[in-house]
Design goal:
Layout lengths: L1 H12 L7 H24 L3 H9 L4 H12 L8 H11 L1 H5 L8 H13 L6 H6 L8 H11 L3 H16 L5 H18 L3 E2 L2 E2 H14 L10 E3 L5 E3 L7 E7 L6 H14 L5 E7 L3 H9 L6 E4 L4 H5 L7 E5 L5 E5 L3 H11 L2
Parallel strand pairs: 5-6, 6-7
Antiparallel strand pairs: 1-2, 3-4, 5-8, 8-9
Length: about 350
């Protein structure tokens, strides 16, 4: 009994695991190198078997994300963790969304730490533009606080851009659009060339302006030209006159099985109607061909293994669906589900 008591005493007295900036940096650099090497292997693979093997060797970003979270979770009061928290938002959102009963979700822990320790930090800019990837009710007010209280104009610009990105998902009434435009203006004026991850604030602001002008509700959807799994060319414009459900998806996206089931059900429901589901898919052509053949994903897809279409549409989160009317204008943007179905039904009743 004394031995057990001593062991418990030592266990309770032991300090929590303390990660390090060096190990966090090694994890992200190693993943980035492995990912680039994987792309080279996929592009160099010849023959079906070699291509399938190369594609299956894709580095698992969620495994890296879990290890990275272990490194930073007990050090969130330290400024070096900000870059890696932002990296998680951008690259492994599923890790941050995970939660267990009685355990504070990672997103809330990070949010609370930023609000408590880092509002005035010169390193919080990257986090400001990453946090819109996983919006939560407190994100907007936190970014407003950073913009107001941080002494660095470039960080103020990053906080303004983060607000513009959050406002994009809150609706398209004139007040929100006006506020979004003003935040974009502040981001461009103040942001300068602030590095954020692998890009700069100005490049992200340019993307946001493109989204506002070309990829928001009411805009004409940019045309897409590509090939399907049979290498037959087709375009989005070919379907003008029909309601189009344009779905960006791949098999490793969050809740992939559920989203694919929802798209398949919608595709089935639209048979014989003046509407069509079109996909933009990043999987290897062999994977997509098999899923089409066995009925898992029976709708026609643009094969986008190079991500060129996704980049043109500024897709950072999967799945994402654009509902497009018969005139080619975007009327709804969402994930697969009930709201997409309602938007399609309302267009078909006109």
């Amino acid at each position: 009994m004394r031995l057990l008591t001593a062991i418990l005493s030592l266990t309770l007295a032991a300090p929590a695991f303390a990660g390090t900036a060096t190990q966090a940096r090694n994890l992200t650099r190693s993943y980035d190198q492995e990912f680039q090497a994987w792309i080279v292997k996929v592009q160099a693979a010849r023959g079906k078997d070699a291509q399938a093997d190369a594609w299956a060797a894709r580095p698992n970003v969620d495994d890296v994300g879990k290890n990275l979270w272990v490194e930073i979770r007990n050090n969130l009061n330290e400024s070096w963790t900000l870059d890696y928290a932002a990296w998680l938002y951008e690259n492994a959102p599923a890790v941050l969304k995970s939660s267990r009963p009685g355990v504070t979700p990672p997103t809330k822990r990070i949010h609370d730490a930023v609000a408590r320790f880092h509002v005035r930090s010169p390193r919080v800019g990257y986090y400001c533009v990453a946090v819109p990837r996983i919006p939560n009710p407190g994100s907007l007010s936190l970014l407003e606080k950073v913009e107001k209280e941080n002494p660095d104009p470039r960080v103020q610009g990053a906080a303004a851009l983060g607000q513009a990105m959050l406002l994009r998902g809150m609706g398209d009434n004139w007040k929100l659009v006006g506020k979004r435009q003003e935040k974009l203006r502040q981001a461009i004026i103040k942001g300068n060339d602030l590095p954020v991850g692998k890009t700069t604030l100005l490049r992200l602001a340019d993307d946001e302006i493109f989204i506002m002008n070309n990829l928001s509700v009411g805009a004409e959807a940019p045309d897409i030209k590509g090939v399907d799994i049979g290498l037959k060319p087709f375009s989005l414009a070919d379907h003008r006159g029909k309601v189009v459900v344009l779905a960006f998806w791949h098999t490793w996206m969050p809740e992939a099985e559920r989203s694919i089931d929802l798209l398949r059900a919608l595709h089935t429901d639209l048979q014989g109607k003046n509407a069509v589901v079109l996909g933009v898919n990043q999987d290897h052509a062999l994977t997509l061909r098999k899923m089409t053949a066995d009925g898992t994903a029976p709708w026609r897809n643009f094969s986008d293994s190079t991500r060129s279409i996704a980049k043109n549409y500024r897709i950072h989160e999967w799945p994402k669906v654009f509902v497009i009317d018969v005139d080619g204008k975007i009327v709804h943007i969402d994930a697969p589900g009930a709201f997409v179905n309602i938007a399609v039904d309302s267009l078909l009743k006109k």
